[in-house]
Write a structure and sequence with these properties.
Layout: E1 4-8, H1 12-24, E2 28-32, H2 35-44, E3 49-53, H3 61-68, E4 76-80, H4 85-93, E5 98-101, H5 106-126, E6 130-133, E7 136-139, E8 144-147, E9 150-152, H6 156-167, H7 175-183, H8 192-204, H9 206-209, E10 214-217, E11 221-224
Parallel strand pairs: 1-2, 1-3, 3-4, 4-5
Antiparallel strand pairs: 6-7, 7-8, 8-9, 10-11
Helix pairs in contact: 2-3, 6-7, 6-8
Length: about 230
């Protein structure tokens, strides 16, 4: 069965060129030419990956990604202009797997697609159904977090950070280690983003349920300890 890719790109020449190259490589391709339509298609598609331009009419790519991450974990590659550094950082923060800067070589895009799809298959094969610490549970298949059976509303990045801490329970991870594991090698932002997301998790778990789950080791980093 062919892997399907959703391409959201408003520049017709680029869109047609990429579409033809993807089809030549054996992929099935769906195409949207504006952000609003692209978001609708992304929420409903059974595609394996989304290629998403940032500069789109009706809804920009960053907003498309933000809304998509509320309901889906589908891998996303961003297409950005050369001077859109902040958009790259925001996109990676919101859960994009990678980005390509225009103009780009089609061979590099195809290579990155292959890497992401192989990684997705490997993760799926190795994935456990749930991770547990005390009354906290994470379902890696449905991306649901629960405390004592009650659903916790987490963003994709919050979920990934919590999963990282649980997988390394009782070990102290410094900010650089967390950035590498959660945000990836291509993250160019400030390490303070870790502190921000730790606060988000504490407000949704520790503070709400009156537990001391996420611990700060001053001068080192963060850890989750068994209750």
């Amino acid at each position: 069965m062919k892997e399907k890719i959703l391409l959201i790109e408003d520049e017709v020449k680029i869109s047609r060129f990429v579409e033809l190259e993807l089809k030549y490589e054996g992929y099935e391709v769906e195409v949207a030419f504006d952000g609003r339509k692209g978001l609708e298609m992304a929420k409903e598609t059974d595609a394996s990956l989304v290629i998403l331009d940032i500069m789109l009419p009706k809804m920009n790519g960053i907003e498309v990604l933000r809304r998509l991450r509320e309901v889906s974990d589908i891998p996303v590659i961003l297409l950005t202009a050369r001077d859109q550094t902040m958009d790259k950082v925001m996109g990676l923060d919101m859960g994009a797997e990678d980005y390509m800067t225009k103009p780009f070589e089609i061979e590099e895009l195809l290579a990155r697609i292959r890497v992401i799809l192989k990684r997705k298959v490997k993760l799926g094969a190795n994935k456990h159904d749930t991770l547990n610490v005390g009354k906290l549970s994470l379902d890696e298949l449905t991306f649901e977090a629960k405390y004592d059976g009650e659903l916790i509303q987490l963003t994709k990045k919050e979920f990934d950070l919590l999963k990282c801490l649980i997988q390394n329970r009782n070990l102290v991870l410094n900010r650089d280690q967390i950035l590498e594991k959660v945000w990836g090698y291509s993250y160019y932002g400030d390490t303070n983003v870790v502190d921000v997301y730790i606060r988000y998790l504490r407000s949704k778990i520790d503070d709400k349920y009156k537990v001391k789950l996420i611990h700060t080791v001053r001068g080192v980093g963060y850890t989750i300890k068994d209750e």
